[in-house]
Model the fold of this input.
Amino acid sequence: MTNPILKDSIIVADSVEKIYPNGCHALKKVSLNIQKGEVVVIIGPSGSGKSTFLRTLNQLETISDGTIHIDDINLTHKETNINKVREEVGMVFQSFNLFPHKTALGNVMLSPMKVLKKSAKEAEAEAKDLLAKVGLADRMNNYPSHLSGGQQQRVAIARALAMSPKIMLFDEPTSALDPEMVGEVLDVMKSLAGGGMTMVVVTHEMGFAREVADRVVFMENGELVFEETPDRFFESDNQRLQRFLGQVL
Amino acid sequence: MKKQKNLLLWKMLYVLIMIGIGYGVYASSKSLSYNWRWERIPQYLISFQPTDINAPFDGSVESVNPKEHKIVLKSDSGQTFVVTKYDKAIAHTGDLVFEGDTVATIKGWHLGSISWGLVMTLKISAVALVFAMIIGLFTGLARISHNPVLRYLSVTYIEVVRGTPLLVQIFIFYFFIGTVLNLDRFTAGVAALAVFTGAYIAEIIRAGIQSIHPGQMEAARSLGMNYIKAMVYVILPQAFKRTLPPLAGQFINLIKDSSLVSVISITDLTKAGREVVSSTFAPFEVWFTVALLYLVLTGSLSWVIQKLEKRLSASD
Done:
């Protein structure tokens, strides 16, 4: 390989297998290398294993075989403290999963205070900055139930960023949103990508993939079928990919 | 909310029914030709009888000084005992006194035996409640743990406790466990109540935790919190809020169940009531009073919990 940044792999998944106790074979020998600062978009039909794969990257989903290294730390090694790894890997969920008993500000402050042991003052100042960055400076003291879906998802992004992660995982972040709110969330993600954040995004937003991704990955039936830069990806004549794109576009 | 039509009429009907019930009680007591003696009850709640000051030894009264409210007693062996505050002197200078003789009385009020029973009920319920919450919380967590031993143990505990009567448990705690561990009645009573209520609270807490969306745990864990932190800061506060109504019911049950500890001779509200009945021969009045006092306890508890619920609902 001639690409110099390849040395900077931050996520290395090697032959990852996931078999659920009920026998469902969710991931079949999935290998993927992601560089520092790279934005990788994973697409594929539902049930293809893309969300499962994303969730193995911070071990919300354990793997049956293979290895995953994040920042040179082997996730499945016995002595790895997964909580330490998770501090560096932020995750944004389809259903936001904001803490309903905390305000927007409280959601963002909680983990920096309890995990990183920051003082309330410091955590609050940082949280306010982050919420302002995602455009919610005027909604800080609202509870999640008083925020729209798009606003909630932006709080969720701020909450993940509050841990100053090196990697951000997005699990279909716009799928649960009303169409008019998709844009505001994608804008935040775009500016994050522009800031050099390493991102792995599972999404159905082809426009986002085309515009922001450095690389697009297509998964089907638990297999990683195809990966390419966006230009070549959408021009590809791969049969399975063409069939899928024909269905969604 | 839709406005109820003829609300006033319905309220009047309610009042009418309540008056009817009251009259029914009155009429049935009439038919028993029962003599109501309510005047005998207040002294068992609060009493203004003067308190006696007794001589601590055999001896004589050396001096009584009404101006300084001072009585000096001297024992046969030379000890002195000085009363510095009294309202009415009974002994006179030079009197011979024997141990236990009343030398003076002091005015004031003190709680009657029913009130002491109420205090005891409150004390037992409060202590048992704290321990029941602790037991319930940990058993509830053990019940959903991944460790089979913890799970089996908690299920066994819950099933055994829920499957046997509290009265029997109190006897077992007092006569068996109490004897083995040398527990006093109060401890045995509190332990029995806490263990009993803990089993129900465990199930309430388990249900509360399981009702929280799994995404909450995932979100907390993905932010780097370990299991315990995620539980303490994310899951339990939500579960607590959700389980407050059933917990309130269980707390009220605890207060009422505490009446059963009277069987091991703890003088709680119920036992105090029984004792007062035997000295006043006014069973109806006493039991109505006791019931009312229980109602005051449980009523204030539900009021407090309702306030708490309202405060926690700020995030809804």
